[in-house]
Structure of AAA+ ATPase domain-containing protein:
Amino acid sequence: GAGGRGEEESSRGRGRAGKRSALYEQLSRYEEHFSRLLDLERGEEDRRALEAWGHWPLERLEAQGLLLRGLRVDVRGRHLQGILVRFYLPAGRQFPSTTLEPGDMVAVTVEQDQGAQAGPGGNEASGVVLERGSRFVDVQFRALPDVLPPARPDEAFRIEKKYSEVSYQRMEEALGRFTDAKDPDIDVALRTALACSWRPPDAAASPLPAQVTEALRLTAFSKGDVRAALRQVEGAAPGPPLNPTQVGALSSALQRKVGLIQGPPGTGKTQTACRLIACASKLHRQSSGKVLAVAFSNVAADNLVAGLAALGVTVLRYGPVASVRQSLRDWTADAVLEKDGGLQAALQAVDSAAEALGDESGRFRDRLEAKTRLKQALEKLREEEVRALRRALRGVDVLVTTCVSAGANTLQEAVGKAPDLQFGCMVVDEATQALEPACLVGLTLGAQQLVLIGDQRQLPPTVLSIEAARQGLALSLFDRLLQPPVALQAGLLTVQYRMHPVLAAFPSAQFYSGRLKSDESTASRRPPPSTFPWPGEVGQAFVNHQGAEEVARERGDDGMASDDGDTLGTASYSIANPTEAELVVRIVHSFFDSDTAAHAPPDIGIVTPYTAQAQVITTMLRAKGLDKAVEVSSVDGYQGREKDIVVISTVRSNSHGKVGFLADPRRLNVAITRARSGLVVVGDTTTLAAGCPTWAALIRWLSKSKLVVPASQVRPGEAE
């Protein structure tokens, strides 16, 4: 009897220890795998940057928008947590095309020699772009850079776009902490559910261990509690209530430890996300937990802030203020900290030390002393910033930031050393565009529940390294959790409010098994009057042509181009199709030469996958004076957005049926679901159908309704 029980207990103990060591092993495999993939990706990004800076002449860097030259300087003074400096071109000059956007990291150097090779110089200062006009760029620096004062009146400066290592460092750090079984801030069940459900890409199919399945299936709240919270939120919400599928998806996601919501184009994903975050905040408030809401991009993070503010939720937007929409700056941490007394005193100390340093009439020794004083004042400012952020966080229900900004030192310190600051739930919007390690960053702040919102039939994460993509870096966490062996169910939003039903029919059939239904309000959408020859009753057409593509090679080498150019402007060549560009501009022009266009200009977007084509089209639009009225962007640039009329320039036309990355069906889905009332696809049906089954399906679908028309039917506009 007794001996038998002892043996039983010790074997149970051994079983537990065995399970534990298997768990540790799995955690370290997961960490090693993703660390290796991040190294591959970082290596590829470095290689491309070095290729550009090492081999390209300045003119080409300038043409690619990676460099601005010949700038004058104007130090504007202190701006929130830094120094604002304006760089501008002398009168009469305008920037060539530049890819600089608010929030970008840049390096600023003095131009010693006009012909000098680009690249990281010895004396450069790193800053963040705050704003860009047609002949100025405002850059925010953490402290006054040595490069700047005092500038001679004739001194010229150069600004180079930098690739930031910060996001890689934060993802690496998060991976280390998430897989460290001793880290007290990581929720044990989430660690088990996410890291231990991962399988190497080449592993044979095998069921998950019971404890992993249990962790994945844990419930967080009862259905009754979630519905009660939603009733409270809806009671105070402006605008129409959620529809039944949105309520169902929200409710099932919040009942779970790990919940997923799939939002096809136009289904009110952001509205649902905001209501869900507001509900989560009510549910977690009992245990004094806050909600962390992160998005892959700054645009999506801003949309969450706007939506939550409208619901009356107290929200703080964290991240570089430069990357936040102007109208939302009042919700930023910087704007809130501006009003913090303790921080103000620390800032004044920095100011007076900076002033003494800048006093050129002072003795050298005094200025040296001022420099030491400034260093100490800046250190004190850092500490005060952490304390002030902690005070600000205590006063809000929701913190909104981007996936990677959740790893910022100031934020990690503010939360990590304050036991009373807890995050009950983390919600990830645009989860299908984020790398899996990027989704882990926010979990280091201690969330106990995770909701991922995305759509695996739209754009995947951008991965430059072919090897890293092959080994699974391009598979988002959202998508991995949907696939076996995990096979979680995502709540699907099925009612779309964006497209005319005819425009929604093909994407619904092709990508959503016919489950995407159109709200009745969409049936009345009609494209505005124009001279464009729509072939059917509604605004849908494919304009077919055979104008050949051209490789817009930017390097004079004879190396064979690989199959594809690249949307990121870092490949050595891109592809353009001038014949098609002319046709696209002719089509766009036809929407501007009606009487109504004069007083109500149409809302038109041009989507094209290739940088070179975007440049050709923009130049042609400029010649017609339409470049300000029409936005030209890549498929990636339009994800999550919409226009009344969308014209797609597909570019590819060749005798081998090669379509490059157009072959990705997700790219096609995003491109054709941006339009509310009118969609015109321009391309070569033969090349597209030969190169990709999904394009072939779309062309068959449109042909059946007689919506494919030859280019000759689009007559030249009056203005030609």
Q: What stands out?
A: Residues 586 and 720 are 9 Å apart (CA to CA). The longest helix spans residues 2-55. The mean pLDDT is 89. The chain has three domains: 56-113+120-163, 171-492, 495-553+571-713.
